[in-house]
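Review the following:
>
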Amino acid sequence: METSNENILGIDVGGANLKMASTDGVAQSVAFEMWNAYERLPDALQQITERWNGHPDQIAVTMTGELADCFANKQEGVRHIVRSVEQVAKIIGAKAIYYGFDGFASADDVDRSPLNFAAANWHAIAKFIVDSRGLQNGFVIDCGSTTTDLIPIVSQAIDSDKTDTERLADRSLVYSGVRRTPVFGLVKQIKYRGENCLVAREMFATTQDIYLLLDQIAQDDNCFSTADGTALTQANSVRRLARLVCADETEFELLDAVSVAKQITASQKQEFAAALDFQMSQRPTWVSDDLQLVVGGDGEFLIKAMLDEYFHDWKKVDFVSQLWGRDVSACLGAFAVAWLCQHEKQWAR
């Protein structure tokens, strides 16, 4: 493959975050709640591109934000995202292309078949890993803030259905991540001070609370994308988890919160292990010693813990953070489309 010297910016337009990356390994994620602010998407994208390291000549885009419930359907969401990107690209004098299941295409191509570009970021990630690492057989696992992809690779081909509905059905998509997943969706009951206790099925806490308490996610006084809108701090996370058992901070201490957090992460690891087991069961000739895993995402740490506990005999495991850095791992979809754009010389089309 040829490479270009163009200044390329990869952008992954999600429902809760805008992720961007360049091929030199600079990457960043910015919170953007599509369902609350979709009309401000052009402004948010312009701010991102203007403060990047020089205006990009080329913008490579992938998306999942089209599923946000502010849109009547996916087609409307895809077209809104494309219009927003095109508006910004015109202002800064850049060319934009969009990743779909058949590769990159122009805005006009997207408009003709928008569903071919909906939620294609997992496919871009898999193609990037196959092309850059020569992955023959195995899985690409990307654990993000909201979802986790377990993408089978068979003879260097991406072996998975295209729609997220089909991927949910075959368990190559697990709608569970390390920041935004409501805790009540992971457990029905927990041990609280020695007693089995049902949990409140209310949006009181999310997984970023448990991973902050388990020292896997850093406290952030400026992060308010939490269940109750207060900052992502230890004290606030303890209070949010207390409400899971209909308690408050006078009845629920840090030790209680850590105990609950450990039970919830155990349930989440078990869920991922079951999905990977299911994927393996669909390929009875596969033996783990012959397979390679490439693991990335904001929740890379959780997949590593799951593998250590349930698949410790898996010999060939690479982590994106060790290959390209933690920032790239957390913004893997954006980095993937930037890399693919550069190496496939898509900027010239």
